[in-house]
Every structure is written in C-alpha cells, then in structure tokens.
Amino acid sequence: MAKLSDPVTILKGVGQARARQFANLNIYNLRDLICHFPRGYEDRTRMTNISDLEPDVPACFRAVIMNHPRTSHIRKGLDLTRVRVADHSGWLNLTFFNSRYAAEELQYGREYIFYGTLTGDSAGYGMTNPVFEAPDSPAVTTRRILPVYPLTAGLTNGAVLRAVRQALAICDAPAEILPQAVREKYGILSADTAYRVIHEPESMEQTVQAKRRLIFEEFFVFSAGLALTRAARARKRTEPYENRELGPFFSVLPFPLTGAQQRAIGQILEDFGRGTPMNRLVQGDVGSGKTMVAAAAMYCAAQNGKQSALMAPTEILAEQHYASLEKLFAPLGVSMALLTGSMTQKQKRTVRERIASGQVQVTVGTHALLTDATEFAALGLVIADEQHRFGVAQRSKLSAKGEASHLLVMSATPIPRTLALLMYGDLDVSVLDERPPGREPVDTFLVGESYRPRINAFIRKQVQEGHQCFVVCPAVEETETLGVKAASTWAQTLRQTTFPDLKVMLLHGQMKGAEKEAAMAAFARGEADVLVATTVIEVGVDVPNATLMVIEDADRFGLSQLHQLRGRVGRGQAKSYCILTTHNRNPETIQRLKALCKTNDGFRVAEEDLRLRGPGDFFGSRQSGMPAFRMADMSYDMKTLKEAQAAAAEWIDENGASDAPEAVALRERIADLFARSEGTMN
Ligand code: ADP
Ligand code: MG
C-alpha cells in the first residue's frame, strides 16, 4: 500500500517530465492528485443504435469496421483517415484528423465501442474524431461518466485520469475528518466513498452527493479553524486600557460622528477594557467613515501608552491616511510616522529607530509592515484597512506581530450578513450602516454604445463645471482581453480624438509604483480633467472634486467591485453620477447591472449579487480573502455552507481539544488549509 505523501513518481507511467507537468498544477504527491477534483463530467453512458444517433447529441454505439481505413495526405500537416462502420440499424462514415492511432488500430471486420457526436447536413451525416475502444477492454473513454480535469500544457485528461485511477487503487483515500455523528445528522457520504465517487462516478446523481460531501468538508474545516483561532485568542491576556476618555479627540473633529460610528467606537472601547485582545471587523460601505473609527481607537491606545500600526493595501492609500490623520492628531499631540516600501533604506531606518524607541505613537504603512523588520517599543493595536484583500492567515499573523495586541480590521466589501458570519467567524463585527449626513446618492445609469455621443457630452459638461471624471476600463492593453476597452488605447483615443482640448491622464497597475503615485497625486490636485484607469483606483483614493465615474464594459466586473468603484465619486458636495457601459445583451447580465442602478446601498448590492450568482462568486474572487478552496469553482449552495458551519461550531465546542484520530486529522487539515491561504495576500 502506498502512502498519500508518496510522490507522484511512484505511479507507473509518471516520470520526471510528467511529474513536472503535475507540479504545474501544484500536484506533488498522491494526496494532491486525489484532491485534484474534476471541474465537470461528460456523461458517456448513453448507448444507442447508429440509426438513432441525433446531430449534436454525443452518444456511444457499438459498430463493426466495414472497410480498410484509408489515410490520405491532404497537405503538409493534414492527414485524413476515413472508415465506414455499421451496426444492425445502419452505417456511418467516420473521419479522423491526423490520427495515426486510428489508422493503425482500427481493423477491418472488428467491432469497437465508439463515442462521438453526429454532424452533418443535407449532404449526409458523418462523425469526426470519435473516441473508441474494444468492447472487451476496460471502459476508460467510453461507456462511463468521464471526469474532466483542469489541465496544463502537455498533460491530457487521459493522463490525469490514469494517474488518479492508479493512485486510488494503491492507497487509501484521505482520512475521515467528519465525525460520524455529523455525517449521519446531515446525510453526508464517508470520505472514502466521496473521494472515489468524485473521480469514478457511476451516475451523475452520485457526483452531486460526492461534491456536497467535499464542499461540506472544506467548510467544516474552515469554520472549525476559525472557531479554534477564536478560542485560542480568547485565552490570551492583555492589560485592560484604563483611560478610555475620548473627549479631547471628539473636540477636534470637524463634524459630529454618525450614530453608527459612535456605536462602533463604543464597542471598541469595551473590547479595550476587557483584558483579552480585541479581534474586531469594522464593516462599512465606502464613505461610511471607517477612518474616524480607526483614529478613535488609535487615540485611545496612545492615551494608554501603546503604539498603533495602521496598514493600507497601497502606498497611495497609506500616504492619504497619513496626511489626513496627521491633521487630526497634531493638535492632540499624538506623534506619527509613515513607513512605505518606496522610501530609501536610510529613511526607513530612521523611522524604524523612532518606532523602536517609542517616540512614535501611530505608524501608518503598507501591509509590508507586517512582514518587515519593524520593531515596536509597545505595540498595542494593529489596524488593517481594506482587509478584504487578504486572507485569514494574515489575520492571525497580524495579531502575532504584537504579543497579544488588539486587532481591528476594516473592510468596505459589503459581504451579505450570512456570508460574513462564515468568513469572519473568528472576529466580532461592527457594521457602519449609516452614511455621514448630506451625501446624496450617486445616480447610476446603464447604457449601450449608442449613447457614446451623450456620454462624451456629459463628460465635457462636468469638466466645464469645474469637476473631474474617472473612466475605468477592464484591461490595460488591447491584447490582454479581446473585445473590451483597454485603458492605454482608450486614453489615447480620448486625448487625441474626443477631447483634444481636455487634459486626459492614464493610470494602471502595470505602471511603476512611483509613476502611479505621481499620476494619482496629480489628478487629486486637479491637474487633469479625466483620469482613464484600471481597477487600481478601486480602493481608497479620495478626490472630492470628481463627480463622474464612467465604467466601460461594466459586465466584466462583479457587482460588488462596481459598487466599490462607484464609491470613488460622490465624496464631495456636488451631485455625482456613475455611467455603466456594456455591449452585453444577456438578460441576466443586464438584470445584474440594473441592480446597481437601483440602489446605493452596498449591502443591498451584495445581497442581490448573492441572490443572482450564488456564493461561489464571493469565495471564488480574490476579493474574499478566503483560503484557496479546492472545490471553489464548483457551485455552492448556502444551505450546505450553513450546515457545515453549524456542525463545526457544535463539534469544536465539545471536542476542540480531543485526541481522537478524527480530531487530530481535522487539526492537521486546518493547519494545511490556513497555510495554503497565505498566498492570497497581495
Ligand atoms: P471609508 O469608510 O470609505 O474609509 P472615510 O473614512 O474615508 O470612509 O470617510 C469618507 C469621508 O467622509 C472622509 O472625507 C471623512 O472625512 C468624511 N467623514 C467621516 N465621518 C464623517 C461624519 N461623521 N460626518 C461627515 N463627514 C464624515
Ligand atoms: Mg477607507
């Protein structure tokens, strides 16, 4: 018996070259191989007579070869092999392109099982490149449900199939980690059955059960992991903050806080007084004022002799935070420093020294702060802004940075409540569900290409009124994705042809960090009228004078991402607009985009997205910060997710510290899953 940890090279037919191909799919050992799930199935079980074959409906049939296969050389690189086959019901001409195998294998007078699709018109029917095998050979490519695997260059589906089949024959399936009681309660297949059936199903119904088991398993592991993390943190001790008086802070604010902001700050102050480290998520739509909540928390930490680190996903955003917080903190005597990757070594060293000696109370930087050599004299609070961009492993790393320090993560991604509970099971959640007063909603329109002259006129009108416009494209270069607007070429068109009299700037993710920042800063200073950009502008940048957001080929973006982009306008006093363009006529796509025109409430948008597309989208996207689930490209249903979470919570409560084999295997799987999710940070 082989072990799951044995390398794939122990399989027959898998040498170094093949192993390298498997490595491209992150498959190194037998476990990886067995966990390489099909992305779909082809049902090749249907047998029929030749006379019952229907065009465009693939099927299997058993037939005899009626003549010697003839191969003709059409031109360089094109050989055609033709042969006629027949059964009791009729005959059929088969054509194979460049198939040495068919030419040599098919024998006059012999019988084979074929699988293929009938094609043809009034000139006659035929079949091209059917697969075939002898009736007495094992069913590999015909008479079965064929798993279709994710592949890589040089690796065929057949090669994966054979390797998986061998692996399942020589080693046990991954250990059972779902307790028997859970499996019985929720009607879940055993691990052994599920892993076999997912690769070698006998019916399509079986595949549904196997998928359900594997999805349930992944969410059970994930939820159990979060529950364990939460329990471990609750056992840590920290000095309660005695001084929780924020009067001076409130008195320097230029505006009264919203009720939601006050509530969130109140919850944070309670956490600070508790004596265990805070683990809190502040979830609030773009513009809901999360920065002020962070500022209040950092002020409180400073009053208690503790340092804070605020981390942003980009340098631009870090600098913007630094600038706005400095204005707020200067009169309060809170000392600050900025630490970003583009600073010189010498600058960084100076800043680090000030942090290490405790002269700096609040440090603002990029997420690199987390991994780099920065030593804090007395780190008490770590804040991660726009946390949706990194995963669960980072959350625990963050809090590991300061011994038992408080952790506050802030996310603008409106995740529907049900999913938030799943994804942030290790955190307490404060929701900012209220906007600062005086903000008018951003009027949003969905238009087709025929509106182009009107869009252009509207851009011009905004500029004439002294405002600025964003134009967002789904790609940077024309070649990247066919048929969508590319920022670089579109910027050129606007600059040269449409608006020769306006200042049009370009900003995209492939520009160097310094260039990007210069462009963004220049636009924020009002040095250009129109900024053509990719989604790099998605997070954080504040340009209150921008009143129009045009999003080209809007169907290429997820709803939540569109909502996020729209949040870049409507940040000033003037009325703001968002125009979504699309060529797409798919009614579902149109319905999805129209949902955005109907509401400015990010949570409503997210609920709608969930309703229309299912949770797979939230987890599948890089945005979610979820670990890389192996079943992620398969469809989820909320019911399974919720059941798995409930089962995990219940089980961890009762058996979290158990030494039973299932519990040990489960903890190993949790460690593995969270380790894999580290790659999702960017
Ligand atoms: P986000 O939640 O998107 O991070 P910000 O913290 O950047 O939002 O706040 C958006 C804008 O709203 C900023 O210009 C900020 O100064 C302002 N703001 C925050 N809170 C209030 C408030 N209570 N009243 C008025 N304006 C506010
Ligand atoms: Mg923000």
Describe what is shown at a glance:
The protein is α/β, with parallel strands linked by helices and 682 residues long. Strands 2, 3, 4, 5, 6, 7, 8 and 9 form an eight-stranded mixed beta sheet that branches.
Describe the protein's architecture and organization.
By secondary structure, the protein is of the alpha/beta class. The chain folds into four domains: 1-45 and 145-172, DNA polymerase, domain 1, CATH 1.10.150; 46-143, Beta Barrel (OB fold (Dihydrolipoamide Acetyltransferase, E2P)), CATH 2.40.50; 247-432, P-loop containing nucleotide triphosphate hydrolases (Rossmann fold, 3-Layer(aba) Sandwich), CATH 3.40.50; 443-622, P-loop containing nucleotide triphosphate hydrolases (Rossmann fold). It has 23 helices and 23 strands. Mean pLDDT is 87; it is low at 620-625 and 678-682. Bound molecules: adenosine-5'-diphosphate and magnesium ion. Adenosine-5'-diphosphate binds next to helix 10.
CATH architecture annotation name of the largest domain: 3-Layer(aba) Sandwich
From the N-terminal CA to the C-terminal CA, the straight-line distance is 41 Å
**Total discrete domains:** 4
In total, the number of strands is 23
**Can you tell me the overall shape?**
globular
Q: Nearest-angstrom radius of gyration?
A: 30 Å
Topology (SSEs and partners):
Layout: H1 16-24, H2 30-34, E1 40-43, E2 59-65, E3 70-75, E4 78-87, E5 90-97, H3 100-105, E6 111-116, E7 118-121, E8 124-128, E9 131-133, E10 145-148, H4 157-170, H5 180-186, H6 191-199, H7 204-235, H8 247-252, H9 259-272, E11 279-284, H10 290-303, E12 307-312, H11 315-329, E13 336-339, H12 345-356, E14 362-366, E15 379-384, H13 392-401, E16 406-411, H14 417-423, E17 428-432, E18 443-447, H15 452-464, E19 468-472, H16 487-498, E20 504-507, H17 513-524, E21 530-533, E22 546-551, H18 559-566, E23 577-581, H19 587-598, H20 602-613, H21 616-620, H22 638-655, H23 661-676
Parallel strand pairs: 5-8, 11-16, 11-17, 12-14, 12-15, 13-14, 15-16, 18-23, 19-21, 19-22, 20-21, 22-23
Antiparallel strand pairs: 1-10, 2-4, 2-6, 3-4, 4-5, 6-9, 7-8
Helix pairs in contact: 6-7, 7-22, 7-23, 9-10, 18-20, 19-20
Bound molecules: adenosine-5'-diphosphate and magnesium ion.
